[in-house]
Structure formats: structure tokens, C-alpha cells
Amino acid sequence: MPRAGLDRATVVAAAAELADERGFGQVTMSLVAERLGVRTPSLYKHIDSLAELHQDLATLAATELGDALRDATQGYAGRDALAAAARAMRSYLTGHPGRYAATIGIFTGPELGAASARVIESLAAVLRGYRIAPADRTHALRTLRSTLHGFATIQNAAGFQWNADTDQSFEWLIDFLDRGLAQKSLSSKPI
Amino acid sequence: MPRAGLDRATVVAAAAELADERGFGQVTMSLVAERLGVRTPSLYKHIDSLAELHQDLATLAATELGDALRDATQGYAGRDALAAAARAMRSYLTGHPGRYAATIGIFTGPELGAASARVIESLAAVLRGYRIAPADRTHALRTLRSTLHGFATIQNAAGFQWNADTDQSFEWLIDFLDRGLAQKSLSSKPI
DNA sequence: AGGGTTGGCTAATAGGCTTAGCTTATAGCT
DNA sequence: AGCTATAAGCTAAGCCTATTAGCCAACCCT
């Protein structure tokens, strides 16, 4: 009986596909094993537990998202960078809903920290183009992150009716953020 | 052997307490039954399935949150209403993290629809004070909802380090939203 | 008091995660 | 090529959760 030639990366990749196709909740040891043509216990040669698999999946997603953000904003600044980042984020979400869902609620943890830090860093880079006062930077970053993440989460959960104008709303949101941030770029007045 | 005198509402209430104390993920038939001093199968006399219990919990949370928003914004308009709504939302989140988590990702469904519609309606009422152009109203509402929900979600997942200045960031966010919406209140220029 | 309803119970099934221990494919060495 | 040590995948088994079936007694109503 030949071996399947599995690998930690292979297993996580299968989990990622499963998450996107059937939802994060369907990422189970049984279904991942089935997809790989292997018996469930075999997975434990590569991964310690389901929780760890979920963590690894979240790390993978955060890494991919971080790369996408970095690539998309490369060479842009100000409003262009903001729009590029926002669209890249939403593009990743719609293309990989299950992976994105994996990152939600698991922003803690040691390994994921490094990966999600890159996402944050990309957003911070976008903000740099707006020359926000130092005292406001953390607040602005959190606001940006909250807004994009919130839109993504709600859309992911089908909270908006999936009309065509969801796209319009997103563009409106980008515009709203841009104007607000631009206004903050000179007045360094704190709270 | 006397009866426990359970009730659909009682069961959901127990689930809600459990969610807040130990996290939404710990809302399981076993733990709810244990908390009520009852054997697991007994719950099925009141609830059809775990999924339905989760739905009911989400509906309860959405209803409570809707009430809190309505009460908080009563009699206010403009910036005051916005601040009151935002703070009420965050207050509910910190007071009932598990219930709030229950509403995430379950914005679909028939019964929850009515409850969550009241939350949306309260936010729409806040926006009315800003006299947004009709063409922009849906977009503004989605932006507001995304932002508040995103902040709540990230904080709930401990995505920000829980510093004291998370409060400051939230106030900054309110200010940011207020200025942006105020700017939209006259210029009815669409995208 | 008596009778029907129904709430809670025990027993049992199915399915998911996980561990233990076996077997043998496979890589690496000689 | 043959030998050996490692480790990949397997079966068997335990535990836990959700769920169903069927029993029995507590409660409500008259």
C-alpha cells in the first residue's frame, strides 16, 4: 500500500480549500482526511489537534492576505493606496471566504501574531501617506482596521443583501475614509 | 422527583449566561443542561437542536442590543445620538461578549431578521439627524454599521491589546464618524 | 380524585476527536 | 543490492457531544 505523501503544508492546504468551498465550520478532521484520501488518524502524524489545524489555517490566511495587501499597495500613496488596500482586502475575502473566516476571532496566539502583524503593517503603511499626527496614529489605524474588517465580516456573513450596490457601498466607504483621514492630516488636534 | 420547571426562555437564558461567562463556543447542549441541573436530552422538550438554540440566543442578543440602542438614543440627535449609540453598543459588547458573539455570522434567518432589523433601524435613526442625501443613505448606514461592528468584533476577539487607550480610540472613532457624516450632510454629491 | 398532557429520565445510536500500537513503505547507508 | 531505522498510514478503541425513542411520573384541569 503506497503512501499518500502528506505533509503539514498539504494538510493545511486541503483545510483551506475545504474552508473556502464549504465554510470554516466544515473544516473538520474527518472531512480533511476524506479530501486527502486518507483515514482520519493519519492526520495526527502531521498535526497535533484540530485546534492547531485551525490556527495554521488562520496563519496561512493572514499571511496570504498580508502579501496581497503589500502587493496591491506597492508604489501607491494616499487615496490610491487606501483604495488599493481596501479592494485587495475585499477581493481576498470574496475569493477565500473560508480562509478569511478562519482569521476572525483568532487574532491572539504566538504564531499568528507574526502573520497578522504584516496585515496591520500594510494598513499602517497606507496611513503613512496621510501624515497623521503621531498622537492620532494608533486611533486612525484601529479605525481603519475596524471599518474594513467590519465590512468584510458583515458581507461574509451575508448580512447585507447581496445586491450589486454592495460594490457601490464599498467605494463610498473608501471615499468616506479618505476624506476623513485627509482632514486629520493637518489638524493634529487630539480628542 | 420534582420537575425543574424549564421553559424555552429559561433554556435560552442559561445559554446566554454560559456564553458570556465561558464564550459562545462553550454553548453546548451538555453544558447548558448541566447548568440547569438537568440531563441533556431533557432540553429537547423545549428546543429542537443546538443550531436552533444558537439562533434563539442570537435573536435574544439582537433584541437586547436593539432595545439598548433605542433607549440610549432616545431624545438625542446628531453627534449626541451617534455617540450614545456607539457607546451603548460597546457597553453591550463588554457586558455580554458571548451574546454579542452569537449574533456574528448569523445575520441571516427569518426570526433573527426582525430582531436585527431593530438594531439597523436604530442606526438609521441616528443617521437621520445628519440629513444625508437619499442616494447616500444606504451607503452611510452600511459604513456606520461596518465600523461599529468591526471595532466591536476586533475588541471582542482581543485583537487590540486591551490597553486603557482602547477607550480613547473608540472616542476618536466616534469623532471621526461624526465629522465625516456631518460633511456629507450638505453636499449631496454621490460617488 | 382522576385523567390526559407533558417534562424529565434512561438507553441507545451516530459521528467527531484523539490515543495506542501495529505494519510496512521508504530514505539512507554500506 | 541489501539492511536498517524512521516514520507514514492503518485498525481498534475510548471519550464526548448531539440526537432519537420510549418510559414514567409530576402537574393541570375538572
| Radius of gyration from the alpha-carbon trace of chain A, in angstroms | 19 Å
Kindly estimate the percentage of residues of chain A that lie in beta strands according to DSSP: under 5%
Treating each run of at least 4 consecutive H or I residues as one helix, how many helices of chain A?
8
Overall pLDDT score of chain A:
91
Task: Characterise this structure.
- The structure is a homodimer of 191-residue chains.
- By secondary structure, chain A is mainly α.
- In chain A, 70% of the residues lie in helices and 0% in strands.
- Chain A is built from eight helices and no strands.
- Chain A is elongated and about 70 Å long.
- The N and C termini of chain A lie far apart (68 Å).
- Chains A and B meet through helix 7 and helix 8 of A and helix 7 and helix 8 of B.
- Chain A binds a DNA duplex (30 and 30 nucleotides) through loops.
- Chains A, B: This is TetR family transcriptional regulator.
- Chains A, B: GO terms for molecular function: DNA-binding transcription factor activity; transcription cis-regulatory region binding.
- Chains A, B: It holds the Pfam family TetR_N.
State the gist of this model.
Chain A contains eight helices and no strands.
Secondary structure layout plus pairing:
The structure is a homodimer of 191-residue chains.
Chain A: H1 8-22, H2 29-36, H3 50-73, H4 78-95, H5 97-103, H6 110-128, H7 134-156, H8 165-184
Chain A binds a DNA duplex (30 and 30 nucleotides) through loops.
